[in-house]
């Protein structure tokens, strides 16, 4: 389980970093230097986790933080913000809104609700498309747990 979480997180972060690098230019972000115009500016990662009361969620956040530290050493991540909302959906919405306002570059959400977070996620996507965030992002990723579970059972 620990290895599969780390692999999934590695793929997600590597994809976002690759997409970010493809969309960057020295003139658009100012992150390039005269000696290395292809150098990318490290990203800020926000993690919004709902319930933290079981071993899987604890392991998930520990793995995210460990992987982020590895990526910090490589210069890919500037910082990571991890917040836990408990079972309070409104608290999670407020935490996500704070991360949007802080202009995180990558927002990972482990939601408390299937539907209650949709408006705040739509707000994040809208702000990204309005140019509030300078760095481009990849397509929004969603895992359909029901479909995934049914295909795994076959």
From TrEMBL:
<dbReference type="Pfam" id="PF13407">
    <property type="entry name" value="Peripla_BP_4"/>
</dbReference>
<protein>
    <submittedName>
        <fullName>Substrate-binding domain-containing protein</fullName>
    </submittedName>
</protein>
<dbReference type="InterPro" id="IPR028082">
    <property type="entry name" value="Peripla_BP_I"/>
</dbReference>
<feature type="signal peptide">
    <location>
        <begin position="1"/>
        <end position="20"/>
    </location>
</feature>
<dbReference type="InterPro" id="IPR025997">
    <property type="entry name" value="SBP_2_dom"/>
</dbReference>
<dbReference type="GO" id="GO:0030313">
    <property type="term" value="C:cell envelope"/>
</dbReference>
<feature type="domain" description="Periplasmic binding protein">
    <location>
        <begin position="45"/>
        <end position="127"/>
    </location>
</feature>
<feature type="region of interest" description="Disordered">
    <location>
        <begin position="128"/>
        <end position="154"/>
    </location>
</feature>
<keyword id="KW-0732">Signal</keyword>
<dbReference type="GO" id="GO:0030246">
    <property type="term" value="F:carbohydrate binding"/>
</dbReference>
<comment type="similarity">
    <text>Belongs to the bacterial solute-binding protein 2 family.</text>
</comment>
